[in-house]
Amino acid sequence: MEFAADRPRWRQVHEVIVERIRSGVYPPRTKVPSTVKLTEEFGIANVTAQKVLRRLREDGLVYTVNGMGSFVTDPLPPPTP
Predict the structure, then answer these.
(1) What is the DSSP string of the chain?
(2) Phi then psi for 3, rounded to 5 degrees?
């Protein structure tokens, strides 16, 4: 993925993952990529991947189970404007 220079990388990756969730690539109750997988796929730092997952939790799109990973919520909250 090529990153735009005018926006933070974490935000750009966040937008990709949100789109995947909303479009059904990651359906409700399925696991989303771990921080390790995000770093590999997007070429980002571990701390950046952690921020993406934290923001997804704050948005109510995923929940995390310690030792198991992060999963898409069911039902999904409505999109924010």
Answers:
(1) -PPPTTS-HHHHHHHHHHHHHHHTSS-TTPBPPPHHHHHHHH---HHHHHHHHHHHHHTTSEEEETTTEEEE-SSPPPPP-
(2) -95, 140
- The region that residue 3 occupies, defined by phi over 0 for left and psi between -120 and 50 for alpha, beta otherwise, is beta
Q: How many CA atoms lie within 13 A of 46 on its CB side?
A: 1
User: Residues 64-78: pLDDT tens digits?
Assistant: 999 999 999 999 898
What pTM was computed for the model?
Answer: 0.93
> For the chain, what percent of residues have pLDDT higher than 70?
100
Of 80, 81, 76, 78, residue with least CA distance to 25: 76
How far apart CA 75 and CA 60 sit, in angstroms, is 10
Look up tokens 């926006």; give the residue.
7
